[in-house]
Amino acid sequence: MLSYRHAFHAGNFADVLKHLILIRILEHLRKKNKPFCCIDTHAGPGQYALDKDYALKNREFENGISKLWQRGDLPDCVAGYLNIIKQFNNSERLTRYPGSPLIIKQLLRTQDRLFLYELHSTEIKLLTAAINKDRRIKAFHADGLHSCMGLLPPIERRGLVLIDPSYEIKSDYAQVTEALIKMHKRFAGGIYALWYPVVERSRIRKLERGIQASGIKNVQLFELGIKADTGAYGMSASGMIVINPPWTLASDMQQALPVLADILGNNGEGFYRIQELAGE
Ligand code: SAM
């Protein structure tokens, strides 16, 4: 049974990196008039209240979106991310944080489509309510890693698959690599963005090696850490592995990540990594 609820973590430093990259990819896809298709394999509930319940328990957003909220000196792409988050808040006060489904919805045009998958029985209800009947969007109460295969390749022949698991079980790491390889075989031209947490560094090394061994080309990794790797409980860093990234993504991250590491890092311990896992 699934127990993970992303609301406990909404708007934290990992969400900042994940959603910053998500927005850059969507902005790239919007540059051409041709329709695109988005698949979000682990959608979550769609949006989060930062002023009540779960989010207030650990207040993780305070070392994430809150630290960026009032700043006017951010690199362009981070300012663009902030601008999208501001569109979900009616006042100067930060009370609401959009999840990946609502961020994608915000950037979807009339010609584009979005498919969402969520396994948790409460989260799927919240998700269905959050997307609020939109003919461009379909949400399924199903396993995203398996069920989305049937959509690949999408008729648009261009688009993004976002894979954002909660890694509740250790086998999730192997499962995502396997699924990614299968997806890429069906739709080699697609953009894929896989999120990972650094809780145990050895798992991430294995994940990277698995992707490199697959022979998939054009893979970049972007990681943001708030403290050095540690054996202690909790996530010290997180990253996104992007297959077929927009060509400007690495230079955007080159500007954004040093600034984010500085603002969000614990006592000067923040760090980042930009690495090509496989060339074109
Ligand atoms: N992408 C969301 C966002 O940006 O707001 C957060 C997603 S959260 C990290 C992961 C979600 O995946 C959880 O809501 C969990 O219930 C769901 N989940 C776990 N395994 C799944 C699977 N195999 N298929 C679909 N959803 C799954």
Can you give a write-up of this model?
GO terms for molecular function: 23S rRNA (adenine(2030)-N(6))-methyltransferase activity; RNA binding. Specifically methylates the adenine in position 2030 of 23S rRNA. By secondary structure, this protein is of the alpha/beta class. It has one domain (6-278): 3-Layer(aba) Sandwich (Rossmann fold), CATH 3.40.50.150. The protein has 10 helices and 10 strands. It has helices at 13-29, 53-58, 65-69, 76-86, 100-107, 121-131, 144-147, 172-186, 201-213, 249-264; strands at residues 37-40, 47-49, 96-98, 113-117, 137-140, 159-163, 191-198, 219-225, 237-243, 271-278. The chain has an 8-stranded mixed β-sheet with strand order 5-4-1-6-7-9-8-10, with helices on both faces. Strands 2-3 form a two-stranded antiparallel sheet. Helix 1 crosses helix 4 (76-86), helix 1 runs parallel beside helix 5 (100-107) and helix 8 runs parallel beside helix 9 (201-213). The longest helix has 17 residues, at 13-29. The model has no long low-confidence stretch (mean pLDDT 95). S-adenosylmethionine binds at residues 2, 4, 6, 41-44, 99-100, 117-120, 123, 143-145, 164-166.
Topology readout:
Blueprint: H1 13-29, E1 37-40, E2 47-49, H2 53-58, H3 65-69, H4 76-86, E3 96-98, H5 100-107, E4 113-117, H6 121-131, E5 137-140, H7 144-147, E6 159-163, H8 172-186, E7 191-198, H9 201-213, E8 219-225, E9 237-243, H10 249-264, E10 271-278
Parallel strand pairs: 1-4, 1-6, 4-5, 6-7
Antiparallel strand pairs: 2-3, 7-9, 8-9, 8-10
The chain binds S-adenosylmethionine.
